[in-house]
Amino acid sequence: MMGSVADSSRRRKNSLANNANVANFKLDGKLRMLATTEVNSPILCCRYSFDGKYIAFGCSNGDIKIYYTQTYNHVYTLTPEDGKKLPVTCIRFRHNEGKDLYILTATYSSGYVRLWYVTSKQLGKEIKEDVELFCCDFNHNFSKFATGGDDYKIRIYDVEKMSCLNMLSKGESFERMDGHASRVFAVKYHPDNEHVLLSCGWDNTIQIWDDREGHAIRRIFGAHVCGDALDMDPMYYHVLTGSWRRDNSLQVWDFDSGRLIKNVPLQSQNSTEKNGLPFVLCQMGWYRLHCLWRK
Question: Which residues contact 51 (CB under 8 A, 6 or more apart)?
Answer without folding.
Answer: none
